[in-house]
């Protein structure tokens, strides 16, 4: 399966917020750690609700956490 075109800054944000673990983030938004791993590695695009919850945990607007990169120019 090819990586998605949804890019994210989750790893950077986790370390900027007290070196939060993937498990801690997962617990705070109600998903498994494996889901966070897949999202962070850009192998899985989160649901819109999960994306908003992640942004909320970091106190960031959605566009500071996720961005869509289209191959259309």
Mind explaining what this structure looks like?
By secondary structure, the chain is mostly helical. It is 52% helix and 8% strand. It has 5 helices and 2 strands. The protein has a two-stranded antiparallel ribbon. Helix 2 (22-29) crosses helix 3.
Characteristic terms for this protein:
single chain; 73 residues; mainly alpha; globular
Biggest β-sheet: count, sense, barrel? Answer: 2 strands, antiparallel
Low-confidence stretches: none
- The number of helical segments is 5
The gross shape turns out to be globular
Instruction: Spell the H/E element sequence.
Output: EHHHHHE
Average pLDDT figure:
92
Helix coverage percent of residues? Answer: 40-55%
What proportion of the residues form beta strands (DSSP E)?
Answer: 5-15%
Judged by helices, strands and strand pairing, the structural class is mainly alpha
Report how far apart the termini are.
Answer: 24 Å
> What radius of gyration results from the CA coordinates?
12 Å
The strand line-up of the biggest sheet is 1-2
The count of strands amounts to 2
What is the topological layout?
Blueprint: E1 6-8, H1 10-16, H2 22-29, H3 33-40, H4 48-58, H5 62-65, E2 66-68
Antiparallel strand pairs: 1-2
Helix pairs in contact: 2-3
